[in-house]
Amino acid sequence: MLVPLYEAVYERLEVGAGTRLLSLGCGSGLALLMAAARGATVSGVDSDERRLALARERLTPDGTPEDGTRLGRGGPEAVAATDGPAFNLITAFDPLYCAGGSARGMAEALARAADCAEHGAPVVLAGWGPQERCAASGALRVAARLADPMCAPARWRPSGRDDLEDLAYHAGLRPDGSGRVSCPYGYADMASAVRGMLSTGAFDAAARATDEEQVTKELTEALHPYLRRDGTVWMPNVFRYLIARV
Fold first, then answer.
1. Dihedral sign, Cα of residue 34, residue 37, residue 41, residue 46
2. Residues 6+ apart with CB under 8 A from 209
3. Alpha helices (runs of H) in the chain, residue ranges in sequence order
4. What torsion do the CA atoms of 105, 107, 111, 113 make, to the nearest 10 degrees?
5. Sign of CA dihedral 125, 123, 89, 5
6. Measuring CA to CA, which residue among 160, 134, 146 is closest to residue 239?
7. What average pLDDT score do residues 88-113 get?
8. Pick from 173, 184, 139: nearest CA to 243
9. Which residues form a coiled coil (predicted)?
10. For residue 40, which of 61, 5, 66, 1 has the smallest C-alpha distance?
11. Which of 24, 93, 136, 154 has an alpha carbon within 20 to 30 A of 5's alpha carbon?
């Protein structure tokens, strides 16, 4: 669903041969695969070993890493080369930390990643756009409410206007441009939409606090307004990205 975001950033920063990319929260590796297809040398870290396994299948299908490709679990130190050139691009595309993750922890990870990068290298942060332009925000409010019933849904928001800038400043980075990209969530039917939203990990805490049946029921209700006559589910969303400098 975030392919338009990846493409917009890579085009703007002219990612290609000579790019040494570090992806924080690389997930199943799609953004890395797209960068590698442009000729970039890619590295990625994530905390979810299952998603890292998918990334390895995508990037090293025969089990042999391409030159310079590194994937690891944990922080940027897991893939930083001690005897090679530093990274010249860092990305943090995963916006879900805004839906309950730790901004402080993200800032610390960004600061550590910056230590592995060239001076002046761009660092790309991404997050949700304005709530009124993100149809998925209704579903994510369900996740927040079920995970913490004491939290008023009206207080929850996908991302504030200055969240990315604040995160950059806390990580010791210098903002240097931004943009917005349309990233609609489209699914063939309601069952696919529910599976797709659950797979993001945003509903894991809600499932632990209640149960999967309750989460599925309320998520289906939240998605119903976006069910079209042909049975597909279509949710328009706008994402925002910030370019900062090490």
1. positive
2. 146, 147, 148, 149
3. 3-12, 30-37, 49-59, 103-114, 137-147, 163-170, 190-198, 204-209, 212-223
4. 70
5. positive
6. 134
7. 76
8. 173
9. none
10. 66
11. 154
Q: Is 199 left (phi over 0), alpha (psi -120 to 50) or beta?
A: alpha
For residue 128 the two structure tokens come to 């949700």
With beta carbons less than 8 A apart as the criterion, state whether 125 and 164 touch. Answer: yes
Q: How confident is the model at residue 154 (pLDDT cuts 50, 70, 90)?
A: very low
**What pLDDT, on the 0 to 100 scale, is given for residue 156?**
46
Q: Bridge partners of 70?
A: 43
Say how far apart CA 154 and CA 198 lie, in whole Å.
Answer: 22
């998925």: which residue's tokens?
136
- CA 67 to CA 59: how far, in whole Å? 11
To which CATH superfamily is domain 3-134+158-186+237-245 assigned? Vaccinia Virus protein VP39 (3.40.50.150)
pLDDT at 15: 98
Residue 170 tokens, joined: 């806390």
Q: List the Cα angle 70/73/77 in 5-degree steps.
A: 65
**Domain residue ranges of the chain, discontinuous segments joined by +:** 3-134+158-186+237-245
